[in-house]
Amino acid sequence: MRNIKLGVNIDHIATLREGRKSKNPDPVEAARVVLNSGGDMIVMHLRHDRRHIKDSDIQNVRENVKGIIHLEMAATKEMEKAALKYRPDSVCLVPEFPDEVTTRGGLKLKSKGSEISKITKTLSEAGIEVSLFVDPEPQDIRAAHNLGADAVELCTNVYSESWGKKLQNRELEKLQLAAYLAKELKLGLHAGHGLDYYNVAPIAGIEGMDFLNIGFSIISRAVFVGLKNAVSEMKRVMQ
Ligand code: PXP
């Protein structure tokens, strides 16, 4: 049995709520169900346009739910301020573009290094653990280490999209090598994006993996089987 933890991204609970600009479904209730069903951490992405998770959701979950809270956010002053205000246990810095449907790939650490290192330092000094969302490329893992990150989250987007195609094995190998390097550099190791009940097992099998952060597939499955079952099924297929 692997000791790999599951972070459940509840953004799309808020997406559903925003469909009616209503109070339900409530992310606080979702966070409680996740943690009572084997989920190890609550993940929320505070976007600049606040299209799903709002500042008040972060605050409400922080104040009303006992558990690890992980905030995904862009490396901006506005988001730094929000993190310092709501005090998640950890933050993952991600790239963000105005018209994207979802995060598309890892941070460009070469061009954005100085702002990322500044915000990483500020958050670390405030006792918030920082991971950087990176593509599984050796230079990005080394750069994350040099910028002072505690962990890397490997972007599994290309792997997920290559599922069932020739490219899949090559993408899995890239993730395995990136994971190996991250562990050698003593970085925490997370992965996520596009993972589902079918493609998750090889990623969960990567040696040294600490956390998988999964959202869309779990919330989609919850529509049919309920959130409790969707979370516990994912936990089961990860082991
Ligand atoms: N990790 C990061 C950094 C993300 O931005 C997202 C999407 O918000 C996820 C994981 C979860 O991706 P998915 O919803 O495809 O499981």
List the helices and strands and how they pair.
Elements: E1 5-9, H1 11-18, H2 27-36, E2 41-45, H3 55-64, E3 68-73, H4 77-86, E4 90-93, H5 109-125, E5 129-134, H6 138-146, E6 151-155, H7 157-161, H8 167-184, E7 188-192, H9 200-204, E8 211-214, H10 216-225, H11 227-238
The structure holds pyridoxine-5'-phosphate.
The site of pyridoxine-5'-phosphate (PXP) has 19 residues, from strand 8 and helix 10.
Describe this structure as you would to a colleague:
- With 239 residues, this protein is α/β, with parallel strands linked by helices.
- It has one domain (5-234): TIM Barrel (Alpha-Beta Barrel), CATH 3.20.20.
- Helix content is 48%, strand content 17%.
- It has eleven helices and eight strands.
- It has helices at residues 11-18, 27-36, 55-64, 77-86, 109-125, 138-146, 157-161, 167-184, 200-204, 216-225, 227-238, and strands at residues 5-9, 41-45, 68-73, 90-93, 129-134, 151-155, 188-192, 211-214.
- It has an eight-stranded parallel beta barrel with strand order 1-2-3-4-5-6-7-8, surrounded by eight helices.
- Strand 7 (188-192), helix 9 and strand 8 (211-214) form a beta-alpha-beta unit.
- The chain starts with a strand and ends with a helix.
- The mean pLDDT is 96.
- Bound molecules: pyridoxine-5'-phosphate.
- Pyridoxine-5'-phosphate is lined by residues 9, 11, 45, 72, 92, 94, 102-103, 133, 153, 192-195, 213-217.
